[in-house]
User: Which sequence fits this backbone?
């Protein structure tokens, strides 16, 4: 009897350009750890908690301490306009928090989009000198399972959990040629979620700078891409292929029922009341 899970892994664990897609069963954690732990890497992790989103920080940090890059040197860079409300969470040795003050905003689209600019400039001013790898993560999330060195590579993105079973004609790419995020019909590999970007600090800097420039060019032409920075990210990754892709195990959404392919949910967006936490309202994806 052929195991359905094995067939699934065989077809969905590598991209057409031979980058691995990381699922449970595609790696041996002991082997991965024995390669990366002796390297004493410094891992930067950026997380934005602007306005009411500070309320998500405690769960994010507490669950990250249990599951995220355990035994690695991790520095969380928390970008917030409410430094006084950042919770004191006990961190394992070698791990710390740095608070980066940022302005608030009346539009969630702007908060979400301006992350690219702030990631770019903070890499230039600080992170570039302090870290080897960087993870840029959404804050309205929790870790539920191992997220370790199997996620390290030069340029890493996560498949959006809403689209991993669909083909590119159904992806919510920006389809208006007037936007710099435009992707023509017939093109596309995967639809990547904006909640997870990672890689070497230099490669993520290049990506963030590109997205920031494209967002600003669109703004100068009074156009906003369908999913803001996520749309520009998807265009960048179409023409600059990631070297490793994280399966939806690494980017789930609590409101979605678990499916057979996803054996373990490692990181998931919590259910939130958009009308309550966002400064302005828009329907969710
Ligand atoms: C999706 C993406 C998100 C981003 C957004 C842009 C996933 C799972 N999520 O999530 O990454 O691309 O669409 O359209 O792919 N934030 C604040 N304060 C605010 C609003 C946002 O700090 O008032 C930060 C916070 O870190 C949050 C992130 O921006 O996690 C993304 O915003 P969101 O979670 O509201 O966006 P959402 O749920 O539509």
Assistant:
């Amino acid at each position: 009897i052929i195991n359905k899970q094995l067939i699934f892994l065989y077809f969905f664990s590598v991209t057409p350009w031979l980058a691995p897609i990381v699922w449970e069963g595609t790696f041996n954690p002991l082997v991965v750890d024995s390669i990366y732990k002796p390297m004493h890497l410094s891992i930067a992790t950026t997380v934005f908690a602007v306005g009411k989103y500070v309320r998500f920080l405690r769960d994010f940090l507490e669950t990250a301490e249990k599951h995220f890059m355990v035994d690695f040197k991790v520095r969380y860079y928390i970008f917030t306009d409410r430094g006084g409300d950042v919770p004191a969470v006990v961190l394992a040795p070698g791990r710390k928090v740095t608070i980066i003050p940022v302005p608030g905003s009346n539009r969630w689209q702007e908060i979400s989009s301006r992350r690219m600019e702030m990631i770019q400039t903070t890499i230039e001013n600080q992170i570039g000198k302090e870290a080897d790898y960087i993870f840029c993560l959404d804050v309205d999330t929790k870790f539920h399972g191992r997220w370790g060195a199997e996620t390290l590579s030069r340029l890493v993105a996560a498949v959006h959990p809403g689209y991993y079973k669909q083909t590119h004609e159904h992806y919510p790419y920006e389809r208006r040629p007037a936007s710099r995020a435009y992707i023509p019909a017939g093109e596309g590999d995967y639809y990547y979620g904006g909640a997870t970007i990672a890689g070497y600090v230099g490669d993520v800097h290049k990506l963030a700078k590109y997205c920031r420039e494209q967002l600003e060019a669109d703004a100068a032409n009074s156009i906003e891409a369908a999913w803001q920075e996520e749309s520009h990210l998807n265009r960048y990754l179409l023409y600059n292929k990631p070297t490793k892709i994280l399966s939806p195990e690494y980017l789930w959404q609590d409101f979605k029922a678990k499916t057979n392919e996803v054996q373990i949910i490692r990181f998931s967006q919590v259910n939130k009341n958009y009308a309550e936490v966002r400064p302005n309202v828009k329907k969710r994806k």
